[in-house]
């Protein structure tokens, strides 16, 4: 049992119509689509750029280093 998606069906219908209009020639379809002026068909919307939140830096935990045993004096030869 497959479920039909109405959006996919509509896209396929329009794709088949465009293919028929151009004789199922891929090069003709591409040339027609490249020749269209997108400003005529699709309204453009300009949005201001998003501001990125300042990156927080991790604070390093201050570690006091204490040796497990006392230091031994070095031997000079």
3D architecture notes:
The protein is built from three helices and no strands. The protein has 77 residues and is mainly α. It has a domain of 32 residues. The protein is elongated.
Into which percent range does the helicity of residues fall? 25-40%
Structural class given helices, strands, pairing?
mainly alpha
Main beta-sheet strand count, sense and barrel state: none
* CA-CA gap between termini: 89 Å
Poorly predicted runs of 5 or more residues = none
Rg over CA atoms, rounded to whole Å, is 34 Å
What proportion of the residues form beta strands (DSSP E)? Answer: under 5%
Task: Name the overall outline.
Answer: elongated
Helix tally?
3
Strand element count? 0
The average pLDDT value, as a whole number, equals: 80
SSE string, helices as H and strands as E = HHH
Gist of the model:
The protein is mainly alpha-helical and 77 residues long.
Keywords:
77 residues; mainly alpha
Lay out the secondary structure.
Blueprint (H helix, E strand, L loop, with lengths): L5 H16 L4 H10 L2 H4 L36
């Amino acid at each position: 049992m497959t479920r039909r998606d109405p959006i996919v069906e509509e896209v396929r219908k329009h794709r088949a119509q465009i293919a028929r209009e151009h004789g199922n020639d891929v090069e003709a379809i591409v040339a027609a689509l490249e020749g269209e002026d997108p400003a005529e068909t699709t309204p453009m919307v300009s949005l201001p750029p998003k501001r990125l939140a300042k990156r927080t830096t991790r604070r390093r935990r201050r570690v006091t280093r204490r040796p497990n045993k006392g230091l031994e004096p070095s031997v000079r030869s």
